[in-house]
């Protein structure tokens, strides 16, 4: 059976095909604000699949996607979906579906205990205890959310493209902003990993994913692995249990 797996997050929507054995090489991305039936037609034109598993944190787009696949076996992942993990959280319905998929993905690929850090529109940290128990985590602004907002709320700061800063002492407005973003987020991540690890009983494996993971994980020895398709791996795990 071939599953269409969809990660509908706030900046980009990622698509791949999964089977019981793993993920396909085909991977497509569409800016989330462009998701429409026409865009889905274009993206999926050459793909064959028997069922669809959607992970969404954008309800308006989830409704469009669900409607588009109304003729196929379709499931939208939530806290009640079997993903091979347990949830120990007071209001599990609050947890973003992508955070649950990340927890399922990290457990399926690397085991537990683990911390997964997703550097997307938001930067999220999720802690998975021994025995695959989702414990909770942290939400911070994503790098582009932070730099774009800084540019929007000031008269003189430009929009910047994220890149590795040459030095900590910036020699231009852009360099100074890059240091704030890249070195600043590395510091934030180190501190939060340290504090979360102290609240866990065993040393967790630490895995990063999301659009800014490669840039930020470079130079952060705390991060054991960067796994760009981790969320989709979690969605695949849910699909294998659902269909
Ligand atoms: N082509 C791209 N389009 C959008 N964001 C990108 C791109 N390449 C890198 N990024 C970075 O990735 C981040 C978004 O990551 P992503 O994982 O797609 O977010 P989300 O999962 O929330 O949709 C942005 O903060 C941006 O800095
Ligand atoms: C925290 C998030 C905005 C992250 O979204 P993303 O950056 O992946 O687009 C998303 O998981 C969400 O809307 N969560 C709901 C609130 C919660 O998880 O507690
Ligand atoms: K995401």
TrEMBL record:
Pfam families: Pan_kinase. K(+) binds at residue 118. Homodimer. This is Type III pantothenate kinase. It is found in: Cytoplasm. It catalyses: (R)-pantothenate + ATP = (R)-4'-phosphopantothenate + ADP + H(+). NCBIfam families: baf. Substrate binds at residues 89, 96-99, 173. Keywords: ATP-binding, Coenzyme A biosynthesis, Cytoplasm, Kinase, Metal-binding, Nucleotide-binding, Potassium, Transferase. Its cofactor is NH4(+); K(+). It comes from the Bacteria. ATP binds at residues 7-14, 121. GO terms for biological process: coenzyme A biosynthetic process. Belongs to the type III pantothenate kinase family. InterPro entries: ATPase_NBD, Type_III_PanK. A monovalent cation. Ammonium or potassium. It comes from Rubritalea profundi. One of its GO terms (cellular component) is cytoplasm. GO terms for molecular function: ATP binding; metal ion binding; pantothenate kinase activity. Its EC number is 2.7.1.33. Catalyzes the phosphorylation of pantothenate (Pan), the first step in CoA biosynthesis. The active site is at residue 98.
